[in-house]
Amino acid sequence: MEKWFVGVDGGGTKTEIAVSHADGVPLKSVIYPTCSYRSIPMEEAIDRVVNGVKDCLAQTGITLADCTGCCVGMPSYGENPENDQIIKAAMEKAFAPMPVHLVNDGEVGWAGSLECAEGIHVVSGTGAIAFARDKKQVFDRCGGWGYFLGDEGSSYWIGLQAMHVFTKQVDGRAPRGALYDIVMREFNITDPYQFIDIAMADLVQHRDRVAGFQRYAMEAAQQGDSTMTALYEAAAEELTELVKTLRDRLEFSADPIPVSYSGGTFHAGELILTPLRQKVEALGCTLQTPKRSAIEGALLLAMEKFDRA
Question: For a tag site, which of 38, 75, 232, 258 has the least CB within 10 Å?
Answer without folding.
Answer: 38
